[in-house]
Write a structure and sequence with these properties.
This protein has about 240 residues and is of the alpha/beta class. It contains 10 helices and 11 strands. It has a single domain, classed as putative 2-phosphosulfolactate phosphatase (Alpha-Beta Complex). The chain has helices spanning about 15, 30-40, 50-60, 105-110, 125-135, 155-170, 175-190, 195, 200-210, 210-220; strands spanning about 1-5, 20-25, 45, 65-70, 75, 100, 120, 140-145, 175, 230, 235. β10 and β11 (about 235) form a beta hairpin. α5 (about 125-135) crosses α6 and α6 (about 155-170) crosses α7. Bound molecules: ligand L3UKIRZJ and magnesium ion. The ligand O=C(O)[C@H](CS(=O)(=O)O)OP(=O)(O)O binds next to α9. It comes from Maledivibacter halophilus. InterPro entries: ComB-like (IPR005238), ComB-like_sf (IPR036702). It is an enzyme of class 3 (hydrolase).
Length: about 240
């Protein structure tokens, strides 16, 4: 099995994702938020790039099912129901609702990855469920780390490294030097994610903005057993 890895959204191009199973990761925090919303019975998550696009979807829809979520500079957007904290999408707050989500890095990356064979959403929260699905399908994989502001971000790389490490325990894989590097990174720090990430830009920015509980939450592994998949404009749980 061939596993390609992209360090940030800037590396995505149609040639590299063509006919591949693509996995998008944005641990802090967009894919953790999407997984949490769907695990808490949101009907779907609709990723969009722009704030105005999100507002328009809500204005245009008739059934009153839409909730708006997202951030700019890590803060909730004016007039939106939720920010990008996964902890806001729990209990019955999103049950049976469609959530339109716009974030700085994650939703932009998801949109950039449309065009592969399948597009899955991964985070530490559902990592094993996604791995099991990838192995079941057996196709070549492209892991896309969203990154932060177009740059490599260690939180996403660590999760990608976990995917590579666990698949490598079960199957022969071929990956890139970046792939082998982040596999080793994960294996060296698998018991100390916070220690590894504490000096990193994205982790520090969220901490400085008071999102310490989000950091703790997003760095837990396998609390959900769902595989979100993007199809025709929205993300739903794969049945
Ligand atoms: O809300 C987040 O965690 C980030 C925003 S920022 O990079 O911290 O400003 O967005 P995401 O798209 O989830 O990386
Ligand atoms: Mg991020």
């Amino acid at each position: 099995m061939n596993i390609d890895v992209m360090a940030s959204v800037k590396e995505v191009n149609s040639h590299r994702i063509f006919k591949k199973n693509v996995v998008v990761i944005d641990v802090l925090r967009a894919t953790s938020t999407i997984v949490t919303a769907l695990a808490n019975n949101a009907f779907s998550v609709i990723p969009v790039e722009h704030i105005e696009e999100a507002r328009k979807i809500r204005e245009d829809e008739k059934e009153g099912m839409i909730l708006l979520g997202g951030e700019r500079e890590a803060k909730i957007i004016d007039g939106f129901h939720f920010g990008n904290s996964p902890l806001s999408y729990m209990e019955d707050k999103v049950k049976d609702r469609k959530v339109v989500l716009t974030t700085t890095n994650g939703t932009r990356t998801i949109k950039a990855c449309i065009g592969g064979e399948n597009l899955y959403i991964a985070s530490f929260l559902n990592v094993t469920a996604v791995i099991e699905k990838l192995i079941e399908y057996g196709k070549d994989i492209v892991i896309v780390c969203s990154g932060t502001d177009g740059q490599y971000s260690m939180d996403d790389a660590l999760c990608a490294g976990m995917i590579i490490s666990l698949i490598n325990n079960m199957k022969n894989i071929i990956t890139t030097d970046l792939g082998w590097t982040i596999k080793e990174l994960y294996e060296a720090y698998k018991y100390d994610f916070h220690g590894l990430l504490k000096n990193c830009r994205h982790y520090k920015r969220l901490k400085e903005n008071g999102f310490e509980e989000d950091l703790k939450y997003c760095l837990q592994t396998d609390i959900y057993d769902i595989v979100p998949i993007y199809r025709e404009g929205s993300i739903q749980v794969l049945k």
